[in-house]
# Entry
Amino acid sequence: HLVQELLEEQRRPGPDHETLMVCLLQQLFLHLKRIASVGGSRLRAGHGSAVEGARRFSRKNLYEKITETDIAREVGYSESHLRKLFREAEGVALKQFILSCKIDAAKDLLRTRHRFVSLKEIAFALKFYDYNHFIKTFKRFTGTSPTAFREMVMP
# Structure
């Protein structure tokens, strides 16, 4: 499914194309890593579609305030069961996946045409709890602050 999504997005780029491509590639990598480490064991029938639905919902709603509860409701599973399935399938917690996609979107905003968008505007647009939460989360995921990242990637 991920390869199909990558190919489809490549053929018809939509809004936030770069962010979506990065998230899809990241998930493909995580999926391949899981297969290699688990020896190819598969989820029971039906669970893979719930995990895929969770990934898709998360990526499509980057600029919304979404919770694990929202995603579980969307895919028709209990929150705790979806969290367990997601971690087993992806090797990462669902909440971490959501944050990772949001940080990838923030990096795209920082390195592209949005040069004059403030960090507070990015934090607000991506629905982080507050500005400080965005800064701390960005640094945890990237090892650098958003300001330092912007300075590294912008001439």
Notes: Residues 37-45 have pLDDT under 50 and may be disordered. The chain has nine helices and no strands. The CA atoms of residues 60 and 110 lie 20 Å apart.
